[in-house]
Amino acid sequence: MSLLIVRNLSIAAGERLLVEEVDLDLAEGEVLGLVGESGSGKSITCRALMRLLPHDQLHIAGGSVTLKGRDLARLDEAEMRKVRGVEIGMIFQNPSSHLDPVMRIGDQIAESVRYHEGASTKEARGRAVELLRQVGIPDPVRRVSAYPHEFSGGMRQRAMIAVALACRPKLLIADEPTTALDVTVQAQVLRLLLDLRDRLGLAILLVTHNLGVVAQTCDSLTVMYAGRIMERGPKRDLLRAPAHPYTEALLKCQPGSAKPAAQLPAIPGQPPLAGAFPPGCRFHPRCPRVADICRRERPALSPAQGPRVAACHFTSALRAAS
Amino acid sequence: MHRYAFILTRPLQLIPVLFGISVLCFFLVKSIPGDPVRLLLGTKSTPEAVARIRAQYGLDEPLLTQYIYFLKNLSAGEMGHSLLYKMPVLPLIAERVVPTLMLVVGSVLLTLLIAVPLASLAALKRGTATDHAIRGFTTAGLGFPAFWLGIMLIIVFSVKLGLFPVAGFGESWLSKLHHMVLPCLTVALALSAIVTRNLRASMIAELASDHATAARAKGLPESWVFRRHVLPNSLIPTINLLAINVGWLIGGSVVVETVFSLPGMGQLLVRAIFTRDYMVVQGVTLVFACATVVLNFVADLLTVAADPRVKI
Q1: What is the phi-psi region of residue A61: left when phi exceeds 0, alpha when psi lies from -120 to 50, beta otherwise?
Q2: Rounded to the nearest 5 degrees, what angle is found at the Cα of B106, between the Cα atoms of B105 and B108?
Q3: Stretch(es) of chain B classified as CATH 1.10.3720.10
Q4: How distant is the Cα of B105 from the closest Cα of chain A, in angstroms?
């Protein structure tokens, strides 16, 4: 059964739609990758799920976010606070700036326990030590009193995971959790996330622009471009035989897929600016298979193969060609 | 090295600073135009009398010799004699320390008491009428000179409303505090204008910061986020701002003490300058300079206490 069901979610800045018709399904213990270039709307989709959009600029324009049968988009702020941190934990791209520099790590973990569960200072501290141990921080009894600047980048991300899991949420939203880390540490953090998924039955929404990260961790994938979903399906199928030219282009840009010493291919052009999306298929200005119909008509998400859906006029043709 | 180790090493660094201060104090005072002996004896004094007094105070010696005497005496805690008050400078200053100290400390406390709530309100209600009203207040506070503000406060609160004494300093501590309210308010209104503006700006930045977002993602209410995360972080630059203004604060006390006839060091200094009371000017300047150094040290201490990242 799905833990999180997002249907038709759109996010707008004033009148301009930045994200349209996003559907996501996430089951317990599943890792769903949300992939796309910078500016494709991944991060604001995550913020919208937490209802943490900067409310003077962005708002949810439509759709539903159903967590365990409740529509989060309709909750009031007080009810939503009981969801944040308690039912959904969130970790961010840059652990250095997302931890309070002048508060002890332990207090940052403990404060949500103290607020949500009314735990005493001592109990909350005990939980903080336990969580630090769980995320693999050595010597947690001493480190619980450390400040963020005394931690390395990887340890800060571990600490942030501990902060997000303090009240034992079932869903973790990880917004580019490894982007700011160096490669060896990236692998450790991803392994930790998978390990936590196995031990705690955590569902993880993993936002990334790195398909290498996806290949290592995710069960299924959703590819976004310019605020819309381009393709969705099980990871294995998507990576092996992408149904959408955009997914295909992303895969070609992976360092591993190019010949050694050859120039790394890039997708020509720039992703469109938010709100200034081209008509028809949004990817058409950069698509190698562009045809007249792409400029005129927007392709709907349609079944491509098995459980997979893609928004391309030539999905079936692609399949035939491969 | 321990973060607080500078408490032990700082006094060593102070030695050259204090030496520089003594040189400056001595020669600055010497460069004030006018002859103190003539001022003391009047214009009709005989040249013999003038020469006798000069010799008595060592004023006929070369400047360097006078400076060495000055240092020698200083090291013995002896700052010379006041020509006007006919008593040693040190006890003269000691009598005047309390009002000035109360003025400086009281002003800083009152500044924080005014600036923190105002800045919080302005930052949380950014762009609203409240924010604009507070900005108006800070602009006014920056625009009005301290002596004018002091006189206005006297007119309103002392003369019209009779809430506070017009001038002077009380006998009992309670009465002293009562006398200090308006002078402290005068300084605090000007200082809180600067502090409010800066604090509001850093609060707005902190409210939009990543770690505040992360705190909201924990499900903490806005008031908690503000109190535990935004406030502590935005107070750090404020401590530095206050430290920078320490010199201004001490200089400002001179004007305010004059307006309120507070028997403090500032008033002593002004009178000493007018009467060319060299030794007193030297003494007070020295004490003010040392106070600036000490207050900067206190500010460093507070910065280290407030920000775990800082090492001095």
Answers
A1: alpha
A2: 65
A3: 95-306
A4: 26
Q: Is the dihedral of CA A197, A198, A200, A202 positive or negative?
A: positive
* ipTM score: 0.89
């986020």: which residue's tokens? B225
Contact A147 B218 (CB under 8 A): no
Report how far apart the first and last C-alpha atoms of chain B are (Å, whole number).
10
- Total-model pTM: 0.85
Tell me which of A49, A102, A171 to substitute to probe the interface with B (most B C-beta atoms closer than 10 Å).
A102
Kindly list the residues from chain B whose CB atom is less than 8 angstroms away from the CB atom of residue A102.
232-233, 236, 306-309
B213·A98 Cβ contact <8 A: yes
- Residue pair A97/B205 in contact (Cβ under 8 Å)? The answer is no
Give whole-number Cα distances, B220 to A66, A98, A118, B212, in Å: 22, 15, 12, 10
Q: Are strands A59-67 and A2-13 parallel, antiparallel or unpaired?
A: antiparallel
Tell me the C-alpha distance between A244 and A221, whole Å. 13
**Along the 322 residues of chain A, how does pLDDT read in single tens digits?**
689 999 999 999 988 899 999 999 999 999 999 998 888 889 999 999 999 998 888 999 999 999 998 999 999 999 999 999 999 999 998 999 999 999 999 999 999 999 999 999 999 999 999 999 999 999 999 999 999 999 999 999 999 999 999 999 999 999 999 888 888 888 899 999 999 999 999 999 999 988 888 888 999 999 999 999 999 999 998 888 888 999 988 888 887 766 777 777 888 888 888 778 899 899 999 988 888 889 988 998 888 877 889 998 887 655 555 5
CATH 1.10.3720.10 assigned to domain B95-306? The reply is: yes
Residues of A with CB under 8 A from a CB of B: 50, 52, 54, 81-86, 89-90, 92, 94, 97-103, 111-112, 115-116, 147, 149, 160, 163-164, 166-167
